[in-house]
Amino acid sequence: MKYQIREMKVADIPAVIEGEKKIFKETLGYDMLYSELTLNPYAYYFVLDINHQVKGYIGLWIESERAEIVNFYVDKEYQNHGYGSMILEFAINLCKMSKVPNISLEVREHNLIAISLYEKYGFKVAYRREKYYKDLEDALVMIKELR
Fold this sequence. Notes:
The protein has helices at 13-24, 30-38, 83-97, 112-120; strands spanning 3-7, 43-50, 53-62, 67-74, 102-108, 124-129, 139-145. It is an alpha+beta fold. A seven-stranded mixed β-sheet has the order 1-2-3-4-5-7-6, sandwiched between helices. The longest helix is centred in the middle third of the chain and has 15 residues, at 83-97. The termini are far apart.
């Protein structure tokens, strides 16, 4: 099995959308992903490519004073094999090289698997956004200090 983390291309958007729908039951959508890849100078998107198929991705915004993980998933069939850790470490290292002081993200309060992964890498809950998601579930905002 061959795998790599590579820069996301416009041609990857349909596969990413399909994966988002499987994992999240919703998607950022073609238009947003397209504009992120082509217009946003602060956007950095990468896919997990396994045997030339998109099996996960991570999207970040990196500015001079902060970084934020916008979205992140690994297909269920590839979870618990270290791919999530590999992608997250890649993103953290990119942020360190960019010299931002911290990285933030939002996660559903009941997504204990994701929260556990983030805590393993030093993210801490900073605060809660009540009824943040469409289904009114709260979001936890987690931050990792890099400096």
